[in-house]
Design brief:
9 helices; mainly alpha; globular
Length: 196
C-alpha cells in the first residue's frame, strides 16, 4: 500500500504539471498584491481538488454511460497527454495578465492544471483502482494537489531561488515525464484491448 501511495503521488504530481502551472501563475499575477496572489493560489487549489476528485470517482459511471472501454480511453487519454507533454517541452506562449480572481478556476485550474490529458488519466485511474487501494490512491491524489497548492503559495520565493530559466527547465522535465506516462497509457490500452 505504501508503494501504491508513493507511485500514485509522484505520477499525479507530474500529471498536474506543477512547474508549468507555477510559471503561468507568476505570469498571470505579476502585478497583483501578495494577498491577492495568496487568495488566487488557494482558490486554484480548491478548484483542482473538486475537479480531480469528481473525475477520479465517477470514471466508471462515465465509461458505462458512454459505452467506452477503459482500453479505448487509455489510448485516447495517452494521446492527449502526449500532446500536452510536447507543448511543455517545446514551450508555450504566456497568457495575458488578469486582475480577476476568475483566473483561479479558468485558466489556472482548468485547463492548465487539469487539462484533457490529465482528465483522461484521472478517469482511467479511477476506473482501474478499486477497493481499499482506491482510498490509498485518493490520499495520494489529495497530497499531490496540496503539494501543487503549496508550490503556488511559495511561487514568488521559488522564482527568486530558481529564476525563470530554472522554472523553464523543470517545466520541460515535467513534459518528458508526462510523455513517458502517455506512452505507458497508450501501450497498456493497446496490449489489453479486447480481440487483439
Amino acid at each position: 500500500m505504501t508503494n501504491l501511495f508513493v507511485n500514485t503521488l509522484i505520477k499525479i504530481f507530474f500529471l498536474l504539471t506543477p512547474f508549468f502551472v507555477m510559471s503561468m501563475f507568476l505570469s498571470l499575477t505579476r502585478m497583483l498584491t501578495q494577498d491577492a496572489r495568496r487568495r488566487i493560489a488557494i482558490h486554484t487549489t480548491l478548484a483542482i481538488l473538486i475537479t480531480a476528485f469528481i473525475l477520479f470517482y465517477f470514471g466508471n459511471i462515465i465509461f458505462k454511460l458512454l459505452g467506452i472501454t477503459i482500453q479505448s480511453f487509455q489510448i485516447g487519454a495517452g494521446t492527449l497527454l502526449f500532446l500536452s507533454a510536447v507543448k511543455l517541452v517545446m514551450g508555450q506562449e504566456q497568457q495575458t495578465q488578469s486582475e480577476s480572481d476568475n483566473i483561479a478556476v479558468v485558466p489556472l485550474a482548468l485547463p492548465l492544471t487539469v487539462g484533457p490529458g490529465t482528465t483522461g488519466t484521472l478517469l482511467v485511474l479511477g476506473a482501474e483502482i478499486t477497493g481499499t487501494a482506491k482510498l490509498v490512491a485518493s490520499a495520494a491524489l489529495f497530497a499531490a494537489i496540496v503539494l501543487v497548492g503549496i508550490l503556488l503559495l511559495l511561487a514568488t520565493k521559488v522564482e527568486r531561488v530558481l529564476g525563470a530559466k530554472g522554472i523553464g527547465v523543470l517545466t520541460k522535465l515535467t513534459g518528458l515525464v508526462l510523455a513517458a506516462l502517455a506512452a505507458q497509457l497508450v501501450f497498456t490500452g493497446i496490449y489489453n484491448f479486447p480481440h487483439l
